[in-house]
Amino acid sequence: MSLQSAPAPAAHMAAELASQPDTWARAADLRDEQSRLPARGARIAVVGCGTSWFMAQSYAWLRETGGHGETDAFAASEAFVDRGYDAVVALTRSGTTTEVLQLVEGLRGRVPTIGVIGDAGSPLVDLVDEAITLPFADEQSVVQTRFATTALALFRASLGEDLGGAIADASSVIADDLDPVLVNAEQFTFLGRGWSVGLAHEAALKMREASQSWTESYPSMEYRHGPIAIAAPGRVTWQFGHAPDGLAADVAATGGRFEASALDPMAELVRAQRVALARAQAKGLDPDQPRNLTRSVVLEA
């Protein structure tokens, strides 16, 4: 490949990140795919690794609190799936992650499995009982953005949510200028409540992967139980969704910055992704090929 045709650093992540309003809208319209997810009343587990695990946490909270059935979320390597579940949903962009493949293979013939997969040609497609593929949301960047949120958009739409507000919020976030205070901050702690806890964890992961930044993440009410000790001038505490009463004032008293908005939490994640990308580029890093990471974790037997 010539230098002229090679992508600029982070070109894939930048384009994939910006495409999210479109991919969410497509996921919201996939009625057949949504109907193949577990039916209302089914008792299920949702499994994944890394980013997919965090999306599983958000889906589990939304599904169970919405009255659709008991729903547990597990890291695939630590999943307790022999609990009489009616189905197990495996979420994976590549469909090649070793821990997910091993778990699904062990469930064959015992528990119905549904895969939500980015790569339609992956080995997981033939292992699960039902494969829902989202190739339009698959990515080339190692640092994942749109597949995760598009899968969550599919899940939210399947639960009867209208994603119009989230899509509009994400479109505005992509068009807005970034605050240089966020791009230049020393440290971030991301917080969430309910379904946005998983998104807070994912925001922290994106910042670590893309820009090698010091980030942490917690449920919002846990922040006062120790983590607030690191709040200080030049550091950011970033809330996803509605903040607990008094938390903004507690952070302000430390001299740290409290970041929050009325955006849909999924759009707030897009904003954090943009900050992670900007921080990576400011450091001369390429999140399309981040240090020590590959697109999928495939372990030797």
Describe this structure as you would to a colleague.
It holds the Pfam family SIS. 40% of the residues lie in helices and 15% in strands. By secondary structure, it is α/β, with parallel strands linked by helices. The protein folds into two domains: 11-158, Rossmann fold; 164-282, Rossmann fold, CATH 3.40.50. It has a five-stranded parallel beta sheet with strand order 2-1-3-4-5, sandwiched between helices. Strands 7-6-8-9 form a four-stranded parallel beta sheet. Helix 2 runs antiparallel to helix 8 (164-175) and helix 4 runs parallel beside helix 7. The longest helix is centred in the C-terminal third of the chain and has 18 residues, at 265-282.
List the main descriptive attributes of the protein structure presented here.
2 domains; 4-stranded parallel β-sheet; Rossmann fold; disordered N terminus; 301 residues; alpha/beta; globular; 5-stranded parallel β-sheet; 12 helices
Task: Describe the SSE topology.
Layout: H1 11-18, H2 20-28, H3 31-35, E1 44-48, H4 51-65, E2 71-75, E3 87-92, H5 98-107, E4 113-117, H6 124-127, E5 130-133, H7 146-158, H8 164-175, H9 180-183, E6 187-192, H10 196-211, E7 215-219, E8 235-240, H11 247-252, E9 257-259, H12 265-282
Parallel strand pairs: 1-2, 1-3, 3-4, 4-5, 6-7, 6-8, 8-9
In short:
It is built from twelve helices and nine strands. With 301 residues, it is an alpha/beta fold.
